Amino acid sequence: MREALAREIESICTATGAERVSLVSHSMGGLVCRAYLRGHGVRRVARLVTVGAPHAGTRVARIGLGANARQMAPGSAWLAELAGHEARALSLGALPPAVAFFSYHDNYVAPQVSGRLEWARNVPLGGSGHVEMYLSAHLADRVAVALAGERATLRTAPIRAA
User: Fold this and answer.
1) Per-residue confidence band for 138, with pLDDT thresholds at 50, 70 and 90
2) In the sheet where 45-51 sits, what is the strand order?
3) How far is the C-alpha of 88 from the C-alpha of 90, rounded, in Å?
4) For the chain, what is the total number of helices (H) and then of strands (E)?
5) What does the alpha-carbon distance between residue 115 and residue 109 come to, in Å, rounded to a whole number?
């Protein structure tokens, strides 16, 4: 998945003439974006926004099948390696500005605080399940604010699916 993302980013930059893109992801897509950053660096990434990503893993992964489920299990070697790379990159200033939206009511990311990303601005969402937050027009507005870099208006508020 990481290499597919790399190809897509290059394709977008070539087609638009942009030097960098902003990455917006939901759920496991947040981990894919982080893996992309580990493998390709920040040269093409202006900022990262994740929504409901299991940054520190999810217990739900223990009942999943395949390599991706094992990677998302809390305490997995893959997650530890990712976090270790980010700790080194952070000390070098080699991570993009990031916002991680997470919900204390997420029914897929458990424990819910696993949706927090250590090096990002973490924004808790109230009253929103895992799929509901993805479908929320209100959250889309908040993501747009995060992409603009306006931190002051990113406040905790209930999410209503639209």
Assistant:
1) confident
2) 21-26, 45-51, 98-103, 121-125
3) 5
4) 6, 4
5) 7
DSSP secondary structure letter of residue 148? H
118-149: string of b/e by CB count within 10 Å (b at 16+)? ebbebbbbeebbbebbeebebbeebbebbbee
Confidence of residue 150 (pLDDT cuts 50, 70, 90): low
Q: Which two tokens stand for residue 155?
A: 């406040």
Q: Kindly report the number of other CB atoms within 10 A of residue 108's CB atom.
A: 18
Residue 64 to residue 68: CA distance in whole angstroms = 8
Distance (Å, whole) CA 54 – CA 65? 16
Q: What's the rounded Cα separation, in Å, for the pair 1 and 4?
A: 5
